[in-house]
């Protein structure tokens, strides 16, 4: 099992986790929780794409000199009903 698969398995089995979506920068769903409806995965992916676009704009407004991170970044959101 790959490191990615191991991590997803750990996330999936963590208490309280109801789902996950992994999407590319265009909002296309690459992976989703096995029990998650594909339409819901697409919906969450669309919301996250919009949120990250808006967040990027806010960061640029606050400090226009900062354009890119020098380290890897992670974006996460709880699966809220």
TrEMBL record:
InterPro entries: Roadblock/LAMTOR2_dom (IPR004942)
Gene3D superfamilies for the chain: Dynein light chain 2a, cytoplasmic (3.30.450.30)
Domain Roadblock/LAMTOR2: 4-63
Superkingdom, natural source: Eukaryota
One Pfam family from the record: Robl_LC7
Region of interest: Disordered: 62-81
Compositionally skewed regions (Basic and acidic residues) per UniProt: 62-75
UniProt similarity note: Belongs to the GAMAD family.
PANTHER family: DYNEIN LIGHT CHAIN ROADBLOCK (PTHR10779)
The name this protein goes by in its record: Roadblock/LAMTOR2 domain-containing protein
Organism from which the protein derives: Aphanomyces astaci
């Amino acid at each position: 099992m790959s490191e990615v698969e191991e991590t997803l398995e750990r996330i999936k089995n963590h208490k309280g986790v109801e789902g996950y979506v992994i999407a590319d920068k265009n909002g296309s769903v690459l992976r989703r929780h096995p029990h998650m409806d594909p339409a819901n995965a697409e919906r969450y992916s669309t919301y996250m794409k919009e949120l990250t676009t808006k967040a990027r704009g806010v960061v640029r407004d606050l400090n226009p000199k900062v354009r890119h991170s020098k380290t890897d970044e992670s974006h996460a959101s709880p699966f809220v009903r």
